[in-house]
Known about the structure:
CATH topology: Cytochrome Bc1 Complex, Chain D, domain 2
Order of helices and strands: HHHHH
Helix content: 55-70%
Radius of gyration: 20 Å
CATH class: Mainly Alpha
CATH architecture: Orthogonal Bundle
Amino acid sequence: MKGTRHRLTGVAVVAAACVLVCGSATVARAQDAKQVYEKSCVSCHGSGGKGDGAAGKMLKPPPKDFATALNGVGDADIAKTIKEGGKAVGKAATMPAYGTKLSDEQIQGLVQYVKGLK
């Protein structure tokens, strides 16, 4: 019985460590996505995703507010827009493609980040 208790305790410790590592990886990805957004997106889309960034005010058409523009749009479509640019998906040609500048993981992080701005 004593050996079983130690094995169960060991399993519980390993499981807890996995939760902590996985949780911290998610937090790290979210922080990375925020940094990528601030570097690559905020000038047009604004810090809150309202389309009110300094450069975005000069664009015709201006960037859309994520709160309305992303309603009903799936993750794959958002990722495609980020990766291939607006023109490739029938949106504004002023939205550049980031597929050669960002990894797929960074793009997926951005997808989740911009959805959180809604």
